Amino acid sequence: MIVERAPAKLNLALHVRHRRQDGYHELETLFTFVTDGDEIRLEEGAGSFRLTGPFGARLAGEGDNLVLRAERAFVNAFAPGRTHDITLDKRLPVASGIGGGSADAAATLRALARLHGVALDEPRLFAIADALGSDVPACLLGKTALGTGRGEQLVPLAGLPPLPALLVNPGVPVSTAAVFKAWDGVDRGPIATGPVLEAALAGRNDLEPPARALAPVIDTLIGQMAAAPGVLLARMSGSGATCFALFEDAGRMREAAQAVRTAQPEWWCLETELTR
Ligand code: C5P
Asked: Cα separation of 145 and 129, whole Å?
């Protein structure tokens, strides 16, 4: 049995530059990951798929999820005729800007690669990831990186400390396509070069205004997080609605989490830290 973690992805900054002919948006983004996320368990078997975890039921109705598509693409390329029993332990909220589905697909590819002896830096694995979704290559890499193009062209970046991070989701699913569509079309410039945290602090998430318009609760959420004592950066991730706050100190992060849980007990709240 292979057990593979599917860490949540954060966009520390996300600058949308322009809309392309193919309908996608050219962007610059600082990807990073936290130490918590979903989990994939996989072995050769008759071809079963099981969903567990607090958000498992939310995916159960969707027959063709990214995990099964990733498995099909891998089997076609590297292991013709083989079948697998897969369990997805779904701990991250669905459609929430922290790459849950992309992380699951990437973890499935990593698990299958380990099982079938395929190198993790095999270019065909990245080509499969790319075809599954814009964030899947970043999740396959699983490291802090600058993403350009649709987000699939990646340059790893060193030097981000393992800061305490609080992730909060207000329980409103947001459609990535709808948020990109509502972007105002104004290019506000590139991400700064230099140390990752400084570039993130100097940057922004251009999808925040359109996401806030579609889900006004994000305003309340970011407001609360930005006001927390000891916060370094509070921002929405991806197309939302999950927002994150980075802290210098784990005690401050726990206090902020407690404040959110008291004020909004129904919101999803994860105390974690950035991956090294
Ligand atoms: O690539 P993925 O399938 O995850 O993207 C979902 C949707 O998000 C796309 O259909 C597109 O509408 C939008 N998108 C975009 N520009 C990107 C990434 C995603 O417009 N760079």
From this structure: 16
Strand duo 84-89 + 49-52: pairing: parallel
Question: Is residue 241 reached through a cis peptide bond, with omega within 30 degrees of 0 on the bond before it?
Answer: yes
Global confidence as pTM: 0.96
Q: Is 9 a catalytic residue?
A: yes
**Confidence band, pLDDT 50/70/90 cuts, at residue 64:** low
Q: What integer is the mean pLDDT of 102-117?
A: 98
* Residue 94: per-residue pLDDT: 86
Q: How far is the CA of 11 from the centre of ligand 1 (A)?
A: 15
Q: Which residue has the higher pLDDT, 261 or 276?
A: 261
Compute the distance from residue 229 Cα to the ligand 1 centre, in Å. 35
Nearest atom in ligand 1 to the alpha carbon of residue 27 is: 21
Task: Decide: 24 in ligand 1 pocket, CB within 6 A.
Answer: yes
| Residue 59: predicted pLDDT | 79
